[in-house]
Amino acid sequence: MSAIDSLPPLRDVIASHELSARKSLGQNFLLDLNLTAKIARQAGDLSGCDVLEIGPGPGGLTRGLLSEGARHVLAIEKDPRCLPALAEIAVAYPGQLTVVEGDALEVDPLAHLTPPIRVAANLPYNVGTELLVRWLTPRDWPPFWESLTLMFQREVAERIVAQPGSKAYGRLALLAQWRADARIVLHLPPEAFTPPPKVSSAVVHLTALPEPRFPADAAVLNRVVAAGFNQRRKMLRASLKGVAPNIEDRLIAAGIKPTDRAEQVPLEGFCALAREVAKG
Questions:
Q1: What is the pTM for the complete model shown?
Q2: Residues 205-216 pLDDT 10s
Q3: CATH assignment of 218-278, among 3.40.640.10, 3.30.360.10, 1.10.8.100, 3.30.565.10
Q4: To bridge 31 with a disulfide, which of 10, 47, 152, 195 should be the other Cys (CB 3.0-4.6 Å)?
């Protein structure tokens, strides 16, 4: 493992600060700094950007982002044990790293960030999906972020990029693809982490679109999609009967067969249905 900066190897940092990964915090540390730099590069040219990182742990990806030229990194870390290691990185990169101790679900990062903003994170497994949904469903669009470069369990990553007709296709795919371009850019085996998780991981890169891919009211679309996939084995005329009156007529008007199931309907079809439902 060659050095990417003047700081010690991560294995030494973890040993000196006694940072064993905690399952309760969804922690799995990446120790290969060449790999963390590679993940950082998936976020694109960072030289003119502030970067939000969630769950930096001992700072492997943090160092990758800074070594790849990020203008400024805001790292939100819940585990106080990791703060001394992150403070050492802040000294090595003066003025470029701000560390906030707290829960990413509760901290407002925008007070510490200047646009353009990108998000890059090896997300803790236990909050990753919830954070992604929040970032994809703000009140106003475009969002505060230009892109998201996020590591998930491979199964979650595949749900984000899934296409109609696949078992992975569902609400997460529709939320992501309605307002962003989403693609898997990197696969990581369990042995890349300490401790090794039981599953493989993947990095997903999402680029925010200037406006949604198809017109629809966000709240109505979310309600239609949730109802359709909550009973994904049922035909849509049955799973959506509580969403609006005359649902069969609305499905037909949207160009959808009432006997189709949710996993057969593309994003454009759900948006068309949401517009029909919104008519009242």
A1: 0.93
A2: 999 999 999 999
A3: 1.10.8.100
A4: 10
CATH number assigned to the domain with residue range 10-208, chosen from the 4 options 3.30.210.10, 3.30.379.10, 3.40.50.12780, 3.40.50.150: 3.40.50.150
Q: Where in the chain is the domain with CATH 3.40.50.150?
A: 10-208
Residue 52 phi/psi, 5° resolution? -95, 125
The helix/strand/coil state of 242 is coil
Contact predicate 77/101, CB 8 Å: yes
- In our burial notation (b when 16+ CB lie closer than 10 A, e otherwise), range 255-280 reads ebeeebbbbebbbebbbbbbbbbeee
pLDDT tens string 89-109 = 999 999 999 999 999 999 999
> Taking Cα atoms as reference points, which of 67, 31, 197 lies closest to residue 125?
197
